Amino acid sequence: MNLFYFAPSMRRDYIDSILARTFAQFSSVKRDYDESMRQRNALLKKIRDGEAEREDLGYWDRTFLAKTEVYHLYRKKWCDFIRENRDIVSAFLPKYALEFHYEDSIIEHGGPGALE
What is the pTM of this model? Predict the structure, then answer.
């Protein structure tokens, strides 16, 4: 029940910990996602500071997008599982009217380079 009271980053970390225990390959997916985000953000800072050109961003945009899509699929699996099993959880908590709503910030893209 504490999941409802956690800050968003703590909720995401909790979901990721469940996914890591459920799917052996998820830790690698998460690590790749985090690394591509760090690299892209570092390049964005260099662009801001005039140390790199915006054209250099294409590779990291495509890489980050690819890693994000895979990462998102795992989160979707978790959400689908919760939705499919909500009645089971409700049986254990009969006093509560449970609802499940998950919002992500994924924007459907039009192909490689959509972040550019």
Answer: 0.75
